[in-house]
TrEMBL record:
Taxonomic placement: Bacteria, Pseudomonadati, Verrucomicrobiota, Opitutia, Opitutales
Transmembrane feature ranges: 20-37, 46-65
Protein name: Uncharacterized protein
Domain of life: Bacteria
Alphabetical keyword list: Membrane, Transmembrane, Transmembrane helix
């Protein structure tokens, strides 16, 4: 058995430190998420609803502007996108000369 323990310990030493850093960060994110969710559970539901709405609107406008939405939302974004500016249309308008000199 001691031989197996030494080889397992040697294998752990061969794992790059970047992996351990990423694993520690993942654990920290999970702990922080649990902490935040517990705090949000005590919050007024109207304030929580407004906060969630604002976050979803910001994400939606980011998807429309950059056109990097998830694939399953592309048909919906194709219908909504013409009403809002996007990165491509803004760049084209900046590249064309002004109508009146």
């Amino acid at each position: 058995m001691p031989l197996l323990a030494v080889t397992a310990l040697e294998r752990l030493h061969k794992i790059p430190p970047q992996f351990w850093l990423k694993a520690a960060m993942a654990v920290a994110v999970v702990v922080a998420a649990v902490f935040v969710l517990r705090k949000l559970a005590r919050l007024n539901k109207v304030v929580l609803g407004v906060g969630v709405f604002v976050v979803l609107v910001i994400i939606g406008f980011s998807w429309i502007y950059n056109r990097n939405e998830p694939r399953f939302l592309t048909p919906l974004m194709n219908k909504i996108a013409p009403f809002f500016p996007s990165k491509n249309t803004f760049a084209k308008k900046q590249a064309t000369p002004a109508d009146n000199p």
